[in-house]
Amino acid sequence: MNGLLLVAGREIRTQVRSKGFVVGLVIMVLLVGAISFAPKLLGGPDSYRVGVVSSQKLPVWGDTPIEWKDYADEAGARRAVLDGDVDAALVGGTRVLTDGEIDDQLGLLLQSANREAQIGSAGVKITPLAMESVGADTRYQKTRSGIAVVLVIVLFMLIIGTPMMVAMGVVEEKGSRIVEILLTSVRPWQLLGGKILGLGAVGLINLVAVLVAGLGGALASGLAVDFPPGMAGIVAGVVVWFVLGYTFFAAFAAALGSLVSRQEEVGNVLTPMTMTMMASYGVAFYSVTEPTSVVATIASYVPPFSSMVMPVRSAAAEIPFWQVLVSAGLMVLAVVGVVLLAARIYERAVLRTGARVRLRDVVTSR
């Protein structure tokens, strides 16, 4: 166990001290933080200012308030519009002055309010329709979909990137024959486990930094008020699923990487893993908009697809907790099986340098 921890510590120190790790982490944190402000920046303003000249202040219904400012004449209101003191000016109850095209939402609010005022002045009383949903609560659906999209991208980048580092590290040690020296001090399973554990900790640092940046940006931008109930569970679930998905693919990558001795062969030997990851990513992205579909539901139980699909489904819709537990249990079994198989392949192939080792020969040899 000490050997495993020593290898893990070496991997962590090597990665966190590199300039590439620091730069990549900063870029990812800034990008996620910026995404948190995107809805606020791209959405409409929180309120509007409208000047009034010889006009009734229209009663506006809706979530966007209007601040009314009285002006003595049209000339004063015109100057206020051009100076940017108001977004528009209502003159005589019949005309609206703007500087260029009026904001679509403001124009719709004023037209609707004017129509309601004229209907009211005619003595006609209109009772608004009461909207009542008999299905699932959709108040948070837009926010859930946005969170799910971010999770798909973040999980894909981390789950595909970090196992690739494991494979390249294995090949580098094998090609330079450093592994022969290392195995004089530690056992093969310790070297393999330490590499997976250490690089997994580095990936977890990236994930936690991204989550903190995203949540901090959401709090600062006010987006957090639209978060669905159970947000803490969604965040915790992402961490758990990352650990499971990373461990599965890291062991997979280490086993395949131990079959070759040159970095040029890494991409080719990892093709089965990358194809599986791409398929998982595609189903997970589909699950953002169709989290309860048959395809998404089935895929969320099938390892390793579940490592990306289930956290996305949990973010995009309310999923029964028992489904999450069953999916996690199946994923744990798959992780254990892959880790045991990878340890066997790694031990038998990592010292065989030169030509690429055939996977069948390694698995069936004694």
Automatic annotation (TrEMBL):
It holds the Pfam family ABC2_membrane_3. This is ABC transporter permease. InterPro entries: ABC2_TM. It comes from the Bacteria. Residues 21-343 form the ABC-2 type transporter transmembrane domain. The keyword Amino-acid biosynthesis does not apply. It is found in: Membrane. The keyword Ribosomal protein does not apply. It is a multi-pass membrane protein. Keywords: Membrane, Transmembrane, Transmembrane helix. The chain crosses the membrane at residues 20-38, 147-171, 192-219, 231-260, 281-301, 321-343.
